[in-house]
């Protein structure tokens, strides 16, 4: 980065009164106020370190002057330099807004006073990473930590003239650290006060039935000009909700308002999907919908789906049935939702087929549901190759009503929970179940008899080869359980239910974005700083998944006894592992050093996709300092979406994409949708995308016009526009072509 002179240097002109820093108190005696000229001279330090004096004012001719900026907009810098303000608060908000546009947070700096007065003469504001904390050392690991100062020199200085006008006299625009991406900027600390300033106005307009995009340029009295530019990453959501609020009044009944709402969503979201089932009389009975982002998430995390049909809307006597899953941060993510008139076989079959169609007919590996025979039969019909599991939380919930006084017994609860998820083998499960039935005299309990017949659908010991993504573990099951109760209780119409479901989905996605930002800014903190395998895990896994991995690694290294067993093959090593404090349970680990294949009898990798403490202990014993590549499940990594959207990451996918028209269209449409959703909340990004599309279209037309249809294998640097028309939607994508 360029060398920038200190912000204080060269800022004051000779002949003006003495200046006292704010922390030294108010100056006394001596000089007085000195009049400033009408023209404003701003010192701008560019990314190359060059300093230039840019003159602005009533009598100044500024045409052709360019404000220097780094990774930001020329327009934003020009506005900052030209603006005339009349209060310290307005100056602070202006630089906050500028920082939000550029992607950095700010902090207040020192101020100086005219001698003998308490009137501010100059005021500095800095990038939040200005300076260094006492005793803190900069490293590659902490440099982009949002809480680490990097001695960044970016700053602005305002001067106040005799008329109380605040004008910029110095701007250092160069940063020595990464700036926040557009979709992350609303998370910046100094932007949050601006966001709060707008939310109440937006809410008022939404509830009043106004569209937000109509009202945004002319916010009600009391709104700040800076507020017009904040929280852009959420603006597309607010735009949609403004339209939604008006739609609720359209139509005379619940069904009509729901249909109006779904049609409106489809108009706003090119990949939005909704379906309705009609009865024999042509009446609408069942609805299903999902938005485009749900399709993108399902493409990444379709291995596990949780379907819950236990939420009933008391007013309409309908079932609200969500499809949810688990993302790479081990958070709940939405795949879609249904409103069902009944729990018939035909209703569930229709719903599952509609869900599959909306997801490109990609079947999940596992699907978890409540205990329902009709649902189970429908899954067998529609998902024949998917492992159907009954959710543990649903069994535990029903046990309270089915087992009466036995629920009070701690001994019974311990044995019952062990049968569900604490047994290591089928033999152990059978012994524990028989003991529980005998001790508590439950031989005639019909519910337990029915449950036992379905044991292969819920007993963990009998599903060691089935991936579940940890949906049955705490705290994940709490997130899955009763997530829609508040939605169902508070909503009074079908359209309001749909709005609430979509709002819940957006809340989850906001949490995902926060985790994505954390992962981008810094790696997770390793307890053992110089452990190669932990550093490898921190590099590839998301923060939450890394912490799960780290816990198992520490258990393996510090709390596991082992015994190596002889093997006939010199490349294979076998160990018996015993965890301290967990009884005499033994797990067997086999490690092949030539193929780097490893397996453990606990089967954690098969069910969770992470190596267990026993396997990590074996790797440590044999001085293996990296996670074998085949045991890094892509769905838990930071870059999972890059793998899904870029077929070149996988040779087989790339060949399929290039050789099959349908596969090619699918890949490009998903990529296009991702680009559109990233850009729609920011005006600058929209302009950039349109410019890219226009330039790409010209290139494409030029090649088509020259008759260059056979393209040799040489990559072209310019972006290309691909317009893909389907029966219902138009998709745009940015990519590269070969020439």
From TrEMBL:
InterPro entries per UniProt: FAR1_DNA_bnd_dom (IPR004330), MULE_transposase_dom (IPR018289), Znf_PMZ (IPR006564), Znf_SWIM (IPR007527)
Biased segments, Low complexity type: 7-18, 34-47
An example molecular function term from Gene Ontology annotations: zinc ion binding
Presence of the UniProt keyword Zinc in the record: yes
Regions of compositional bias (Acidic residues) in chain numbering: 57-66
Keyword Metal-binding: yes
UniProt domain SWIM-type: residue ranges: 587-623
Listed PANTHER family: OS01G0519700 PROTEIN, PROTEIN FAR1-RELATED SEQUENCE 5-LIKE
Name of the protein: SWIM-type domain-containing protein
């Amino acid at each position: 980065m360029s060398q920038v002179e200190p912000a204080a240097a060269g800022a004051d002109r000779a002949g003006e009164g003495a200046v006292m820093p704010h922390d030294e108190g108010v100056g006394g005696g001596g000089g007085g106020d000195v009049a400033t000229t009408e023209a404003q001279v701003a010192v701008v330090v560019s990314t190359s370190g060059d300093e230039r004096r840019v003159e602005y004012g009533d009598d100044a001719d500024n045409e052709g002057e360019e404000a220097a900026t780094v990774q930001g907009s020329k327009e934003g810098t020009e506005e900052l330099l030209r603006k005339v303000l009349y209060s310290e608060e307005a100056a602070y908000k202006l630089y906050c807004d500028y920082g939000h546009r550029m992607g950095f947070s700010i902090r207040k700096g020192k101020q100086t006073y005219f001698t003998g007065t308490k009137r501010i003469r100059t005021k500095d504001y800095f990038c939040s990473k200005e300076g260094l904390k006492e005793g803190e050392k900069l490293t590659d690991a902490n440099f982009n930590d949002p809480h680490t100062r990097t001695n960044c020199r970016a700053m602005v200085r305002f001067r106040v003239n005799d008329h109380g006008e605040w004008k910029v006299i110095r701007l250092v625009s160069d940063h020595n650290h990464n700036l926040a991406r557009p979709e992350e900027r609303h998370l910046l600390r100094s932007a949050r006060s601006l966001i709060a300033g707008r939310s109440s106005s937006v809410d008022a307009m939404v509830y009043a039935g106004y569209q937000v995009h109509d009202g945004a340029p002319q916010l009600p009295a009391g709104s700040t000009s800076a507020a017009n530019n904040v929280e852009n990453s959420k603006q597309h959501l607010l735009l949609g909700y403004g339209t939604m609020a008006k739609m609720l009044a359209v139509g005379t009944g619940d069904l009509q308002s729901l249909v109006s709402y779904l049609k409106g969503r489809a108009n706003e979201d090119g990949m939005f999907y909704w379906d309705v089932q009609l009865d024999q009389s042509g009446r609408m009975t069942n609805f299903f919908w999902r938005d485009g982002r749900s399709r993108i998430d399902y493409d990444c995390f379709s291995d596990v789906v949780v379907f819950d049909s236990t939420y009933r809307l008391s007013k309409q006597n309908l079932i609200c049935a969500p499809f949810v899953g688990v993302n790479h941060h081990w958070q709940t993510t939405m795949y879609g939702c249904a409103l069902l008139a009944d729990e018939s076989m035909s209703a569930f079959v229709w719903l599952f087929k509609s869900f599959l169609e909306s997801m490109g007919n990609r079947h999940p590996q596992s699907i978890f549901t409540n205990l329902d025979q009709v649902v189970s039969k429908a899954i067998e019909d529609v998902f024949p190759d998917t492992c159907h599991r009954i959710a543990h939380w649903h069994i535990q919930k029903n046990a309270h009503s089915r087992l009466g006084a036995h629920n009070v017994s701690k001994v019974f609860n311990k044995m019952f929970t062990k049968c569900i998820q604490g047994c290591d083998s089928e033999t152990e499960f059978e012994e524990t179940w028989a003991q529980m039935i005998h001790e508590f005299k439950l031989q005639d309990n019909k519910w337990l008899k029915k449950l036992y017949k379905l044991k292969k659908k819920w007993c963990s010991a009998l599903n060691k080869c089935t991936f579940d993504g940890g949906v049955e573990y705490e705290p994940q099951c709490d997130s899955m359980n009763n997530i829609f109760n508040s939605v169902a209780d508070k909503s009074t119409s079908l359209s309001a239910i749909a709005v609430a479901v979509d709002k819940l989905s957006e809340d989850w996605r906001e949490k995902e974005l926060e985790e994505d930002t954390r992962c981008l800014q810094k790696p997770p903190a390793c307890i053992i700083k110089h452990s190669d395998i932990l550093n490898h895990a921190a590099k590839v896994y998301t923060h939450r998944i890394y912490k799960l991995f780290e816990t198992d690694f520490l258990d393996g290294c510090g709390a596991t006894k082992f015994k190596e067993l002889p093997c006939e093959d010199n490349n294979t090593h076998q160990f018996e592992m015993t965890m301290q404090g967990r009884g005499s349970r033994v797990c067997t680990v086999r490690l092949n050093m030539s193929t780097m294949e490893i397996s453990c009898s606990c089967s954690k990798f098969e069910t969770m996709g992470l190596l267990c403490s026993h396997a990590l202990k074996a790797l440590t014993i044999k001085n293996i300092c990296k996670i074998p590549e085949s045991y890094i499940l892509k769905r838990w990594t930071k870059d999972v979406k890059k793998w899904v959207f870029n077929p070149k990451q996988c040779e087989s996918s790339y060949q399929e994409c290039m050789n099959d028209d349908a596969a090619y269209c699918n890949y490009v449409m998903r990529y296009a949708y991702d680009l559109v959703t990233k850009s729609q909340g920011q005006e600058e990004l929209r302009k950039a995308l349109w410019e890219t599309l226009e330039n790409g279209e010209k290139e494409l037309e030029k090649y088509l016009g020259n008759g260059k249809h056979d393209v040799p294998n040489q990559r072209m640097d310019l972006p290309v526009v691909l317009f893909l028309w389907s029966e219902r939607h138009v998709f745009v994508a940015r990519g590269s072509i070969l020439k």
